Structures are given as C-alpha cells and as structure tokens.
C-alpha cells in the first residue's frame, strides 16, 4: 500500500512540481492538496497540465487537513511553515520546500529572513560531500523532518563542494553568476515577473550580497570542509520558464591542473544517479535538464586567470526543489533513492 | 551634402544594424551595400525590416564596389577585412566592425585568432578613461581607420575601467559572466544557434579562458591604468535576440566603501550621453537598452565577499557594434558625437 | 515652437510608447505625464528605457494637470477617459488610446463594454479605404478629438478592407486568428500574463465571439463598403513582448484570381508610407515591424479552399497604438503625416 | 523480455523524442540507433538530455543495422523511408514518423510531395472517429506497418472530426491557423529557424494552400464522414520550442447550439486517455501538454459569425509524433494503449 501524502501550498509552482513527480511515483499517493486563495478549486483548474490528478480538489491549509497522512510536504511562503509544522505528529515525515528550517545559525536567519527562528532540519542535498568523507545523504536516513534546499543553493553547492573538499579550490573569494528562469520566484504577481517585462530581457536581482541563498551556500561549503568561505553571488532572470545555469569561479590552489580538477569531480560524482560531470571541455545547457532530477556539471580551468570555471545546469523546480524533496523522501523512508524520479530531460 | 557610405558585408546582423542607424542619420547616405552569397538580391528581401532602404541592391564585395565613397564600413568575418582595407584610399574613413584591427599585440592576435596580423587601428570606445585622465574618444578625432570594439568587450570595459582607473578596484582576479543574445554570433547556420536549441535554455560557450574577447578587454584595462589585469570571462547564450547583461566582479581596494565606488562611477560618466550610472541600489535590464546606443551601469559592493558587483546592460548590435561605429564616425568627422544615434530603448 | 503635450496614464505600455515616439518628434514637447499609483515617481524609474525623458516626473491624473497643453493623449483604462475628456477645452487636440470613443453604435458599446456611452470621435486609421473611394485619413484633418483604434482592429481592418472595398472578397464569414504579444494587454498584474505562464506557451483568450474588438472591426469594414460583415476572431498570446501576426481569411468572389487580388492590394496601398504589400508569395513576420509604424501585408489565395489568406504584421504598440496616435496627430495639425515616425523596424 | 527496438534517424528531434519515451517504457528496449552525419557519435553527445541512454552509440542507417529487431522506428526525412522499409521483414513492426506512407491517394502524393509513391500504411491516429462509428485505433491491432501522422494534422483532425462526424459542423470551408514551435521543422540548418530570427517574432510559412499536411487532414476528415471537405490551413512559427495551438473554425449546421456541440465533443472523447475536452468556456494552452501525450480541446460557438471555434493544444513531438508512435505500437502489439506514455505535462 502506498504512503499517503498531503501537500500544503500545492497551488504554486513548487507544489505543482511535487504533484507532477508524485503522480508517477509508485509508492506514493497524494490524498490531500491545500491552498490559500485557491481552496475549493479543482486541482485541474489551477494545474491544467496535471491531468492524472484531475480528481483532487484544494482544501484550506489547516493542521486538521494535513494530519492523518504518512507524508506532508510544505510548499508555503517563507516564514509560514514553522507554525504549521509544529502541529504535526513527530512520526510523520515532513518536508519543507521553504526556507524556514534550512539555516543552522539563528544569526543568519535573523539577518537574512527575520521573524521567529524555528531551528534547522535534516538538509535534503544528498550528494553534498562532508569534510569527513561521508555523503550528506546519510543524515537523511530515517529522518522525519527534512529541509529542502534552495534551488540556487543546490547549483552552487554541488559545483563548489568537491573542489573545496579536495583542497583543489580556495574556499574564499568565490563567485557565482546565475541565469535563472522566473518560475523560481513563484506565482507571485509582481511587475518584473510579467511576460512583457522579461521577454527579450535579462534582469539582475538581489545584487550585492543581499540574496537569502548566500548563508545557505556558505553553510554547505563549511560542511564540505571550507573554513571561512566567502562568495559573490548574483542571479539574473532570463526569459526561460525554468532552469538555472550557474557560472561559478574559484581560485585554484597552487599547482592544480585542469586534468586534476576535472578528475576529482568525475570521481566525486561517479556513483551518483542524478549528478553528472561532462567530459573535459564540455559544458551543459539548462535544456538538457528540464523536467529531470539531474544536475549536469562542466569543469574547466582558466590558467591565465588562475580560476576554475564550473558550470552547473539544473531544473530549479526538479533537482532544485521538488525532485530534491522526493529524493530525500526516498532516502528517509528507506526506498531506492532514485525511485520515481525522471533522469532524462525534455528537450528541445 | 551628406557623406556617401559603402557597407561591406551588409547582409549580416551587424551590417543590418549599421544600415538601420545610418538610415536615420542626417549626414550620411548609404549608396552601396555589398554581400557574398546575397549579391544580386534586393536589400529589402534580406532585411525586410529596413523599409526605408528598399531601393538598395547588394553587389559583390570587391574593392571596386567599395571605392569612391567617403566612408566604408566593413562588417565582414574575422580575418577577411585586412586585405580589403589595404585596397582603400588613405583618406577614406574606414570602420572595421570585425576583429582584424583591434589588438595592438601581434602575440595576442596570433594566440587568439591566428593568420596574418594587420596591425591595429584607432579603437572605437570613446568613453574609456585613459590612465592619464584623458577620454579615449580623443584618439578618434580625425581618424581615418577605426576598429570597432567587440560587443562583450564594450560591456566589460565600461564596467571595470572607472573603478580600476581610480584605484578603487584591484586590477587582477576580475570575473565577468555575461548573459548574451544570439545575434552577437551573427547569422551563421550552427546547430546551437537554432531556435529549438536556445528557446527555453541557457548555453555557455567559450568557457575557460579561450574567448577571443579576453585580450581585448585586458588591453582596454591597461589603457585605463591596470598593470597586470587578469579576468575570468564566461558568456552564456540566453533566449533573447539581442542584449548583453554583464555581471562583473572585482576585489575592492582596502577601505573602499559602496558610496565611494558608486560616486566615482557617477562622476566618471556624468557628461556622457550614452553611458549612464543608475542610482545606488538599482541595476539595469537589457530591455532598457534595446535599439539604443546606451549602456546602463549599476554599481554595488558586497562587503562580506570583498567584491564590487557591477552590472552593465547594453544592446550588442548598437552600443556593442553599429552604434559604436556611428559614434566613432561622428567623432572622426567632427560631427556632434550623438548625431543620429538613438538614446531611448524600445521596451517592453 | 513645438506643440506642448500632456499624456494621461503615461506609466503603462501604451503611454510609454507614446512617450518614446514623441521624444523623437521634432514638433512636439512632452511637458506633463500623469499616472495613478506612480504619481510622484520619476519617469525614468518607471520607464528606464526612456533616457531622453529622464527630467520628467509623474503627477496625478487630474483635469488641472492636463489643461494648458496643445495636445492631450489619454492612455487610460477603458471606461475612464470619457469623464476626463469632457473637462478639456474644445480646441485642445485630444487623442484617446482607449476604447471609449471608438464605437459609433451605442448598442455595440452597451453589449461589449457597458457603462456610460460617450459617443464617437474621429477615428485614427488613416489608410482605411471608404466605400466612396476616399481615404479615411481625410476625416482627421483639423480634428480635435481622435479615437485611436484597437491594435488587433488595425491589423484585421487593413488586411480586409481593400479586398472587400474592391468587391474581390465576400464580406461575410470572415475569419481572423492572431498571434499577439502580451504588451497589448498592458502592465496588468494577472496570473496568465506572468512570464512563467507565457514562456514556452501559446494561450488563446476571449474565444468565441466575445472579444471587444469585433464590433470595431465590423464598423470599419462597413465604412469600406461591407454590407453585413461577420467575422470569427480569435487572438492567441504568444511569447514575444510585442507584435501582432494576423492570419485572415475570406471567401473570394467568383472568378477572382490570385494575381487580381494581389494587384488590388498593391494598388490600394501604393502611396502609403506605413502600409506595404509584399511581393506575391511572400508573407511578413512581426520582427520586421518592431518599433516601427509599419504594417506589412502578404496576400495569397488558396484556390482549393476558395479563400484568400491575408497575413498582416505590425507592432501593436506602434502602428497598433502610439504610432497611430502620432500619425493622426500629424494629420490633425496639418503636419506631414510621416513626421517623426519610424519606418524601419528593430530586427533581429 | 522486452521488445527490441531500432530507431533510424535517431539524431533528430523526432528520433530523440521517441528515445525519451521508449527509455521509460517497461516493455521496450532500444538496442540500435542510427544516424547519417552523426554515425559514430555517442548518443549522449547528440542528445545530452537523454542521460539514461548514455550507453548507446549511433551507427550508419543501413538495412543491416536495422534488421534483427522486433520494432523499427523510421524518423527519416520525407522520401527516404520507402526504400529502407522495403528491406525489412514483414513480421517486424515498422513505424514511419515521416510522410512516406500516410497518403492513400497517389495523386495527392504526386501533387504535394512528388517522387516515388510507396503506398499507405495503417494510420496511427487512434482517436479518430470513423464514419461508421468505429474508432480508428481498431485498424492498428496487429498491424506491422504504421504511418505516424503529421503533427499539425493530428491537431486539426482531432479538433474537427467529432463535429463533422456528428453532422454538427459543415465539412467544407473549414479554417485552421496554428501557432507552432520550430521543433516540428526538425534540426535543419535554415536561416528562418535561427534563434535570432524567431525570438520575438511570429513567422507564417507555407501560406496559401501549399502545405503538405492539407491532403492528410482532408483524408482524415473523409474517414470521419466528410464528403468534400475543404480547408484553409496556415501555420505560424512562434518562439516556443515545442507545441501546437490550433485555432480551428467551421460553420455550424442550422440550429446547432453551443451546448449541443460541446456535449458531442465531451461524449466522443469521454473514454480517451489522451484526448480531453475542457469544460465549456475554457480553452487550453500549449504549456499544459508539454512532454505529455495529451491533446486538450476547447469547444466554442460564435453565434454571430455562425462558426464553431475549436482550440486544440498538443505537444508536436509527443502526441504529434513520438507519443503517437508509441501509442500505435502499444495497440499493434496488444499492450495496454497507455503503457509507458506520460499524461501530465511539464509546466510552467
């Protein structure tokens, strides 16, 4: 019998993508979907692409409606999941796609988000290497509270951690510039997210060290062995509905060669089903990952500049959010880590 | 009586944009347009947007067809303009939109392009500050041979030169990641430039220090006062026809504040008609510059990362190519620098 | 001395485009821009592409602020311009970019819009042929109240009127399907207009005879000589910021040949500066008209189907709105009809 | 043990999509992929999105390489599959994604394609209603030669057949205007398919009754009961990689009401897994079908115009090509018709 699932905030893009993935997962059955303004609406009217779930109807986001399921996924605005989560039983598996339980430092929370701090949960980035050589996914085994990473964070962390972990990249003075699709910003009605504004345009946002994903990236890099990492991080909205293309640079340690660096990444991710390092000299495009729980990585070294250039492509809604949730859920429940997750992208 | 103009290679995107700008310039009259495979075709069949030039027909690209004009613009593939230019009279104003006459170092030419080196011409980036405090545009006065800069080069050079010139930015270990539209790659029939490949995707290219624009950027920064600049430079194709959004970072000198840095850029470009620094905390999008000879710059400082973040937006075909050519031409001929050039973008 | 202009509702897309065109018009000077929620804001903060108008600031949309100018342009939501217009002096030239003064039939107004009917003004589609052989532009000479047509209406009317006028096309059972950019829907915060929703998608709207542009199209066709025209009209939003590509069909009268039909269109528009009929067998794309006051028309005949197929491309914000306003204004004031208006598009 | 599959022409977009779908099909194993210029290349280098098939390498397209499989899919240019097919054993299931075996009329073939006529195969549009009340899918049971329909044909046929079959729509004087993504045109290197040309533009093509899909549509409508159907058919390329949004109109028979028409479509497709009729007043967008084998239909009636307006959305590469091939294959082999086929789209 499949696990029963409730999804809170299921009318947004992240919630919709959790639904899409769960609809094809053989061990999960979505029984309850909740929403705020869409409560009472048929799911198919809000997500007309999810034909296989046409039987569901949104109900209000209340603890009562979420209780009684094996699994609860929270796809709520930042700052709102802490209170809801506190109402759920300890043995229910709860996955929070929002930011509320990602940061281990209350000071970071206060500086970048503010409001009540709800502590941190097991963090859902399985492929992250730890300083001690272990794979981060180990912490998810048997977990009942999982914080799903931010989408940009996943791209940058996967791109930097192996090199820093192996001592091939300096851990300070990192840079990352990301071309990102607007679906990462959600279904919010903001002028800059209008099609007329973004079609034919590239828009930077949260420039200059103020983006909320920065402390989360640094937290991950410290897990991987960085001592006092710093990063200049800039996302740029571009006219594609989904996708992240992260251009990451880091100074290389003395004497490191391009071959050595590339080989380290290949070795690090050799056994991973969802993270793939391309052959030397090749770099990924986001189209290759659309709809898939796949992160693709290209690794190069610009000897003149003394910097490695690492390109990471992923789908912000899958490996960046919903796929990470399902992958973490698989581990937490002792299912095969890849169960139900797409590996092939939808291209062109 | 207007100056007579011939444009070689006028069937491509750069040539088309030179035509568009010249059609509205009060002192220029395009008399001859040449092409290779399109010789014999009506201009309006190749550039159906240029209704005001429907009377023109492409002829072969030969010295004979180009002679007898006051101005010749070369919009030819790299490596082909040197030979043609040698056939033109010394008192004709020749502007080369290709790379052949940009680099002052024969070694750079050999490393990044190869083939015969034709020397360097007066370089068409008027707003570049020189180490001695002068404006680069001075070198264009009375010039008869002008090398038009590369589009990415213009964005990065305008973004870095003021800070380096003023000693506020370190001149080594620079980084630039650019979201660029495919028109900069020309009308070439390449698979990665197909609409099916680029729609919904971000594609990096020339990653890892191999891009031909790198030596040209460093040459400009040295003009502005850099001693031994290095830069990690990565362009990413995104699905917008035109535009460059450059995300540039540089380490700041000790003690430099965000206010100080911003004020320096404001002061540097205060008298420029085509380069504008946005108020502190604001950053440009490419849509704001489409069709205009305008570069917009946002200047920030991430104190935690110790890096300035400078965002430059421009239209690769206008300020990045054709507008730069016309602006340089205006200076060279003693016309008002802004004559005939659009300042307002076409948005949304 | 230039004419002084005030623009009401200048913070939207239509208002922004009026500003862009007027900024380059030699006989106009925009002195006042009004807005609702943006009152008090600098124009450059709302329209960062309009660098040449950076000195302007939005004021409230009140009769007081609009009075005292030679020309007032109303770019307000439907249903709101009637009251404002009534407060303006009779000798002021008022152009309404909204729908309030387009329909000559009060019954049509009641059915498609509702609310108070304010009568109809001189209608700003100069190239429309009248049944009596005259050019519609004649009615604009000396006009002081001008209703600017709807953008879809302009495309369909220009595409059908010559054939109907000449008796070559049947005037009933017409069809039009339009691929349109979202800027025509304005800067409204609606979910379906979000970039995430429209990127990679084509969205029909107002299907089944309910679109408000239908009575206006039929009104124009009757002017051109149609007796009882009917049209099936369907717009489809596609992911381009601006542009209309209208695919129009009409049954041909008995014995009409493709050559005859094409020749009629060529002859009809032969003297027009802004409407161009392509050679037989060629059809326009919207890119060819971006930023220009140009409508391009391709004319074909499918003998098997017994229908003419007429393709019209134009820029909804220029020939579809702001350019039509300026063109009408030129006629009304006795200026050259083409003064200040761009003929060349911005492509690619 | 799964059926073994060879795919000829697997390096194109249609072939790639067949691969994507077959990779997730539980009863199929792709053993051989052939190509022309890509022979010798690793599949993952040509289709970097198909990570699960990274073990495959392209071989030459020869009868020898295709023999020895249970199933052969031909995704070859028009005119080239006839000769190859003749070399394959009769008991092999061969599916032709090209046009060579679609048309039952040699005269149609000669007029629209030309070259050798190879006869027609069982036609892979299962949901098409026949005049006798049967479902077209019946002809596929046990078939060993299947012609996969053209993508535009599928959209228009599914949209018109029920109404014509039921006598609610007139079968002559039909119109269809389609917004289509460029992937339907394949990976061909043509100037009009470049990203620079299509971004921000809508381009009509094959206007005026010359499109090769017209005889195939009429053939289908005759199957459904039409006597002498005629259609005006115009496709328009728009800037989305995949998707077809067909706007179809037909005159309604006397006295037909909107409710009656809608009810007929609902009833016709009530048992279909892949074709869905939306509630009255709602119309689909293409994003809802991306990656899915789903066609969505909206049905309206414009009483003033006397025409039904039927909107059909589907993914040209899935329900329009590769999904139709797999669905037909499932029927031919006696597998469940929906096996392995995605129903949910990837949106936004």
UniProtKB/TrEMBL annotation, chains A, B, C, D:
Main location class: cytoplasm
Domain Semialdehyde dehydrogenase NAD-binding: 4-136
Entries under PROSITE patterns matching the protein: ARGC (PS01224)
Family: Belongs to the NAGSA dehydrogenase family. Type 1 subfamily.
Keyword Cytoplasm: yes
GO biological process terms, semicolon-separated: L-arginine biosynthetic process
Active-site residues, as the UniProt record annotates them: 151
Organism domain of life: Bacteria
Record HAMAP family: ArgC_type1
GO molecular function, one term: NAD binding
Role description: Catalyzes the NADPH-dependent reduction of N-acetyl-5-glutamyl phosphate to yield N-acetyl-L-glutamate 5-semialdehyde.
Claim: Kinase is one of the keywords in the record: no
Protein name: N-acetyl-gamma-glutamyl-phosphate reductase
Enzyme Commission number, as recorded: 1.2.1.38
């Amino acid at each position: 019998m499949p696990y029963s699932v409730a999804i809170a905030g299921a009318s947004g893009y992240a919630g919709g993508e959790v639904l899409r993935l769960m609809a094809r997962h053989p061990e999960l059955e979505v029984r309850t979907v909740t929403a705020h303004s869409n409560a009472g609406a048929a799911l198919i009217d809000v997500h007309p692409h999810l034909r296989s779930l046409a039987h569901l109807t949104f109900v209000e986001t209340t603890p009562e409606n979420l209780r009684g399921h094996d699994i609860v996924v929270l796809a709520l605005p930042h700052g709102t999941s802490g209170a809801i989560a506190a109402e759920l039983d300890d043995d229910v598996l709860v996955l929070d796609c929002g930011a509320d339980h990602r940061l281990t430092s209350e000071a970071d929370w206060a500086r970048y988000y503010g409001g009540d701090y709800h502590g941190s949960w097991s963090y859902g980035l399985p492929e992250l290497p730890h300083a001690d050589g272990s794979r981060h996914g180990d912490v998810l085994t048997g977990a009942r509270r999982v914080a799903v990473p931010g989408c940009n964070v996943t791209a940058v962390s996967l791109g930097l951690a192996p090199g820093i972990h192996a001592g091939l990249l300096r851990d300070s003075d990192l840079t990352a510039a990301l071309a990102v699709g607007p679906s990462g910003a959600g279904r919010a009605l903001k002028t800059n997210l209008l099609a007329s504004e973004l079609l034919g345009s590239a828009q930077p946002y949260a420039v200059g060290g103020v983006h909320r994903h920065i402390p989360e990236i640094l937290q991950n890099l410290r897990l991987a062995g960085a001592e006092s990492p710093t990063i200049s991080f800039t996302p740029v909205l571009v006219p594609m509905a989904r996708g992240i293309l992260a251009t990451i640079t880091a100074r290389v340690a003395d004497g490191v060669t391009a071959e050595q660096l590339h080989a380290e990444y290949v070795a690090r991710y050799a056994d991973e089903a969802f993270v793939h390092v391309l052959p030397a000299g090749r770099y990924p495009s986001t189209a290759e990952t659309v709809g898939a729980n796949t992160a693709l990585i290209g690794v190069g070294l610009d000897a003149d500049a003394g910097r490695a250039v690492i390109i990471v492509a992923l789908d912000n809604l899958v490996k960046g959010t919903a796929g990470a949730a399902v992958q973490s859920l698989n581990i937490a429940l002792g299912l095969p880590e890849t169960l139900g997750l797409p590996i092939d992208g939808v291209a062109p």
